């Protein structure tokens, strides 16, 4: 909180005095323990509201009396803790006109009564009868105005007191539907209740139910469904709901005889009878997938048209007429002609009329102003009133102002093109899309069918297949693709569109949100014709798309008006029963389309155990037939469900375990700080996805390693086979072993250094000799695996060991002690050899480019630079200079480069090119000269480039590790060469220096051509085009070639400088690596005392841009740190030794797998029984193999959860034992040959497909998976094994791929497999059968066994066999 300050007072002479400006701190008042109670005014009843008496409520007891007349009544509430005397009841004090006090002991809760008193919708009066205090409660006014939620709460309380109406709906909810069995039970209850309620489907099929245009014969269950649909469309809801009260309301009779209506759930009260409004007729057709809902809808369309004779105009021999119109625009050629005339001589009547009107208003206007306002009127369609024609401008959707074929809106007078709006005179009066919004809806007899994009073509094909007669069908693809005038929809019987169209055209219906523009629109927005007519019937296929009322698709579906509304879906309940409200909201079934009514009347009672209201409602509006109920009618064969449980191969098992370890650690880290009792449903979706991501990675690893890359195997290489996976695992293990070995040697060198500081020279020598022993062990492969030892660590060991041996000779020296210096020098030479060879190769490349540049310069005909001097003069003499400047500007604009010329004169351009050219030559010469100072060349047997030895010290003091950072040091030759590189780069390319604080960083810009280079290229081009002297443009081309070669040379020179710098750094690293741990010098200083200047200096130092190297003095230790570092390094040494031993065992294990499975080598004999391992054996993680008999004995004699290897004594867990079969990867020897080497699951899929192909030449297979990445890997395997397949995902080419799939099924002899991702499977699960006819596939395959069995039962086809591969 801020502190209040006193305003300064004026001193004598009206001068402000700073001494009088005294801050005042306000003292905080100590709050009393209990504040005095607040009196509330009681609003009594008026004459107008006495007839709204609700009743009386007993509030307490009292032996006082209430006065009959009073002016003001106030009430005071005192709780027990506020009373001085001991009292077990709260007290209510009524104060009348400040003279009379009435004290009552309360019998109800004080806070509740206080809310009633303060409510603005209630009035109170008190009375006392027989020592009992009552409160008469009145409503102030009906109907209630806008009421606060607190007042509604008070109303609920009062009605509960007086009328005993239960207002609390919070009941025990048993939990929502989640399992398929619970959903099936609900459907069965609906069927049973429906059979008791209706009897119309028990009738025999009549002739009226057989339409001549319907080509197919309906099955009995389809006839029943059609009868129910006709019953729902013919029912009169106005009579059915006549006089019925809204289910949310409860009728209450007041003591005055007045009847009011109360909502117990919200507290609202009304005196108007809440009658149920008539609802739209329709329902939910929810037959199970594959039972022919499409045919049932088409039969309903034929049997109940708007006009009874509409389908009887011809016989059924004609085929349906499918129309798919395309949007037509004005001819672009005519538009160009119009614009050309406007840009040419102003001779047309329209232009002359505009100019004449402008001159009448102001004759003094210049010709430029007149031309500008004329262009405004013609091209932009707006301007001042005197400059525009009298008639309104053309505002068409195409944006063209071409005045042919226009039509005028009858309402606003707007002119538009007939062709663009799809209008002709036969369609009646013309209204623009904006005026259509205010016109009454046009009633038509067409049915609108809305489907997913993938099912649109299927619906059209079903209409062609099942319906005859001249029915006109329109495929509406949206106003952007086609133009339909609203009255034109009268000419169609069925209109088919998609949810995508509804979603995209929602914005076209929101005309009230259009922003008012300053000027009139040039382009008129399009309109949606679907919302401007009243359809006879609207049918949503896959209606679960609108399960959420707030979706854009749901909003658009509600805006479409229709006489009958139908929702067709095979899964009305997808997740839980609350999904049904979205369908009820779309169907506009009053009163349950209101969310509060649905929740309080149906949903909450159902979830609390009272199923009757929900079942009664759903039995009326939902029709469902399941395959189990009509099994005898659909004549499908028996389904066979097979599960294949596969076992990982040894390689996959190893990889999966590593992934499992990482995923477990990641999962535990994410849930570490979360409450274990928290339900998953209450976790945010993004957070839940993040928590479950490790589990998803494990599921990926079960199918193929490529789908879970980036965790254990962070490699960019595609692992196409299990052999590739094994090689990647081996390389990963080798890399981990090298890192572990490096840490071990680092610990040994550190321990040796610490022991030298402690004066223990013999122990230090022992540690150094351990390092040399490790080098000999892993370099010769004695440990079974060759691992390289870090050369810098080896140099450190040899150098310091030789130094210690010279100062403290051991009693028992070794034979190699005298050769340590020589061996150390050899290791140093091997370390430097790599850098020297790379620099030598780069040196040769640079020399080649230098020679190329010299050769090109020798080809110049004229003097160097003469070509652009003479060329500019020639251009100027021949009047091409303006064209030259224009082309320069265009070239700079295309390259996105700013043209920075102080003057566009010929001499200024010549001077700019000359200075740039000379700058390039000068910078290049200086750069090459600087580079020559950095190296020496030795050409004895081959070229060897060696950095000069003197450079190491100068580079060290300059930038590598300067000793005194405060003192400015002269730049070393390496840094000077780098500066020359940047200067040369700035001249060659479009680059510049950074700001002062970032000078050492790279230049700003890019390697685009500079402005001067573009000028030279343009000059050379125009000299050649205009046929100047050949010497000029040929020298120009040579100069450009020289420039391009210089750019390539610069890249190689920079690479050469980088390698020289790395060579110098390597020399410095060799010097650094010889350092060992040293004691830090302790400076004498007074601890805790720092001057002010030192503090400021430390703060300023922290604000600098210079990076501080914290590892610079890490080799310096204090005396008290020695023991800690000794124990720490010992512990790290032991940990890494154990880890290295385990990694070496793993390496042996992986190498053994490679030899046995992919090289055909048998392992060594069993170490226990010495039997040869030929057919079957076991292998441990340490890499040692045992026969099955011996491993069984080891397992039986072990009581713990692990066994110990008989050779290396490493402990192994039971689950880490792998069992190998000779020559076996995934399949047995008698199985079909598979091309390639894939995961166990993919090879099992290919094997099943090949077996099906042998049984049936053209099997039909449907293959499901949860992830697109898995499908992609499976497709690669299928292609390699010559099994043609079609990978279908969420793409726009879905329909084309489906058709391609169907055609090739007939034309090819290979298996045709169809892939769907999980999203498509779940979203389009009922369209799988719709898109492919029932005889087009027979064998669904599910890759992940976790996929619900409900999804398997979505498809019933001929001779079907389901297979789940787990």
Automatic annotation (TrEMBL):
GO cellular component, one term: nucleus
Gene Ontology biological-process annotations: DNA damage response; protein polyubiquitination
Family annotation (InterPro entries): ATP-helicase/E3_Ub-Ligase, Helicase_ATP-bd, P-loop_NTPase, SHPRH_helical_1st, SHPRH_helical_2nd, SNF2-like_sf, SNF2_N, TPR-like_helical_dom_sf
Any one GO MF annotation of this record: ATP binding
Keywords: Metal-binding, Zinc, Zinc-finger
Matching Pfam families: SHPRH_helical-1st, SHPRH_helical-2nd, SNF2-rel_dom, zf-RING_UBOX
Domain RING-type: 1166-1209
Keyword Manganese attributed: no
SUPFAM superfamilies to which the protein is assigned, alphabetical: FYVE/PHD zinc finger (SSF57903), P-loop containing nucleoside triphosphate hydrolases (SSF52540), RING/U-box (SSF57850)
PANTHER family in alphabetical order: E3 UBIQUITIN-PROTEIN LIGASE SHPRH, E3 UBIQUITIN-PROTEIN LIGASE SHPRH FAMILY MEMBER
Protein name: RING-type domain-containing protein
Lineage: Eukaryota, Metazoa, Ecdysozoa, Arthropoda, Hexapoda
